[in-house]
Write a structure and sequence with these properties.
By secondary structure, the chain is mostly helical. The chain has helices spanning 7-33, 65-84, 99-122, 126-129, 133-146, 148-151, 177-186, 196-199, 202-215, 222-228, 233-239, 265-274, 289-302; strands at 47-52, 56-59, 188-192, 276-280. Helix 3 crosses helix 13 and helix 5 packs across helix 13. The structure holds heme C (2 copies).
Length: 320
C-alpha cells in the first residue's frame, strides 16, 4: 500500500529513480570508453603525467574490466529488483510482495509449528490444565512474554495492575477460569467516576476516607470515620453497603488489606476526586484460543494455594 496523497508523487519518484539508474549506466558507458586525451607535454609512456610522492605515476587506462562488470551487474540488479519488488513509486512489483504479507505468513507458520503442542491441551478444561505440569510450564512462558510487563513476572502486579496471586476476595472479578479466559481474550476496563461533587468539600472527603480506612481496620481517626459513614452512601451502589465490593461491576472489596491503587487517606481522596479508568488490553489478536486456555490455567494455579484469608498480601500497594 502506498501513502502517496495522489498519483503524481508516485510518478515523480518512479521517474527520478529510473532516470538516475539510466544516468549511472550512461556515465559508465562514457567513462568505460574514453581515455584522457593527449595534450601537449604529455609523456608518451601512457601515463597521465601526474606524479605524486616523487615517483608515483597514474596510468591513462580505461576502467578495469572486473570493475565495469560489477557496475553493470549493479545496474541490472537494481532494474530487476524494481520490477520484482515494490520500490518504483506505488508500483507493487510483479511478486506483489509486502512486509505485511511476509509477517502474516510467519505468524501462520509459527502457529502451525506450535499447533501439535497445543493440540494435546485443547481438549482439556482450564481447571484440568492447572494441574498439569507441562501445561503450566508452557503457560509460564506465555505469561512471561505477554503478561509480566504489567502483572510482574511472579504475577504479583504493582500499583494499578492487579496482583494475580491474591485469593478470590481480593480480585476485581471472580477468581475463575471463565473470568480469566474472558479477561485475557477481550480485555477489561475498570471504571470509577469522579465523585467529589457527590461527597462535599475537603473536610467531607477526609471524613469519608477515614471511614473507608476503618472498613479494613486500618489505622484511622475514629471521629472522622464516624462522620464519614453517612457519606459512604455515594459509594454503596458499587462497593456495597458493607464495602465488600461487587465483582459483577469490578468494584473492589474495600474491607481487605489489598490496595490496587494505593493505601492511605491521600490515595483514597484522590480516587474519589479523579476517579479511575483502568484498562487491560484484549490479548485475542496476539494469542490463539488454545494459548489463552493454557495461560489462564497458569494464572488460576498462581492463586490456587495462596492466601486462604481475604487479607491477601500484595506488593507495595498493601497497607504498611
Ligand atoms: C498493558 C498491561 C496489561 C497486560 C499486558 C496484561 N494485563 Fe491483565 N490487567 C491489566 C490491568 C490494568 C487490569 C485491571 C483492569 C481493571 O481494573 O478492571 C488487568 C486485569 C487482569 C485480570 C483480572 C484480575 C481481577 O482481579 O479480576 C486478569 C485475570 C488478568 N489481567 C490476566 C492477564 C493475563 C493472563 C495477561 C497476559 C496474557 C494479562 N493480564 C496482560 C493490565 C494488563
Ligand atoms: C460506579 C461505581 C463506583 C462508585 C459509585 C464508586 N466506586 Fe470506587 N471503584 C469502582 C471501581 C470499578 C474501582 C476499581 C477501578 C479499577 O478497576 O482499577 C474502584 C476503586 C476504588 C478504590 C481503590 C481500591 C483499591 O484497592 O485500591 C477506592 C479506595 C474506592 N474505589 C473508593 C470509593 C469511594 C470512597 C466511593 C464513594 C465516594 C466510590 N469508590 C464509589 C467503582 C465505583
Amino acid at each position: 500500500m502506498s501513502d502517496f496523497t495522489n498519483g503524481f508523487w508516485s510518478w515523480y519518484v518512479g521517474v527520478i529513480s529510473l532516470l538516475s539508474i539510466l544516468a549511472c549506466a550512461l556515465l559508465l558507458w562514457v567513462a568505460g570508453k574514453a581515455t584522457v586525451t593527449a595534450h601537449p607535454g604529455q609523456p608518451d609512456d601512457n601515463t597521465t603525467g601526474h606524479v605524486w610522492d616523487g615517483d608515483l605515476r597514474e596510468y591513462n587506462n580505461p576502467l578495469p574490466r572486473w570493475w565495469m562488470w560489477l557496475f553493470i551487474i549493479t545496474v541490472v540488479f537494481s532494474l530487476a529488483y524494481l520490477v520484482i519488488f515494490p520500490g518504483l513509486g506505488s508500483f507493487k512489483g510483479v511478486l506483489n510482495w509486502t512486509t505485511e504479507g511476509e509477517h502474516k505468513q510467519d505468524v501462520t507458520q509459527l502457529q502451525s509449528d506450535v499447533a501439535p503442542l497445543y493440540a494435546a491441551f485443547s481438549t482439556q478444561s482450564v481447571e484440568t490444565l492447572a494441574q498439569d505440569p507441562r501445561a503450566l510450564a508452557v503457560g509460564e512462558r506465555l505469561f512471561i512474554n505477554n503478561c509480566a510487563q504489567c502483572h510482574a513476572s511472579d504475577g504479583a502486579g504493582s500499583k494499578g495492575f492487579p496482583n494475580l496471586t491474591n485469593a478470590n476476595a481480593a480480585w476485581l472479578g471472580e477468581r475463575s477460569a471463565a473470568h480469566i479466559v474472558q479477561t485475557v481474550t477481550n480485555g477489561r476496563t475498570g471504571m470509577m467516576p469522579p465523585l467529589a461533587a457527590a461527597v462535599g468539600g475537603e473536610a467531607e472527603l477526609s471524613e469519608l476516607a477515614h471511614y473507608v480506612l476503618s472498613l479494613s481496620a486500618s489505622p484511622h481517626n475514629e471521629i472522622k470515620a464516624f462522620s464519614g459513614k453517612k457519606l459512604f452512601a455515594a459509594c454503596a451502589a458499587c462497593h456495597g453497603v458493607d464495602g465488600k465490593g461487587n465483582k459483577a461491576l469490578g468494584a473492589p472489596n474495600l474491607t481487605d488489606q489489598y490496595w490496587l491503587h494505593g493505601w492511605g487517606e491521600a490515595a483514597i481522596v484522590s480516587m474519589i476526586k479523579s476517579g479511575k479508568t483502568n484498562v487491560m488490553p484484549a490479548q485475542a489478536p496476539k494469542l490463539s484460543a488454545q494459548q489463552i486456555q493454557v495461560v489462564a490455567a497458569y494464572v488460576l494455579n498462581l492463586s490456587k494455594n495462596s492466601f486462604a484469608a481475604p487479607a491477601a498480601t500484595g506488593t507495595a500497594t498493601t497497607k504498611p
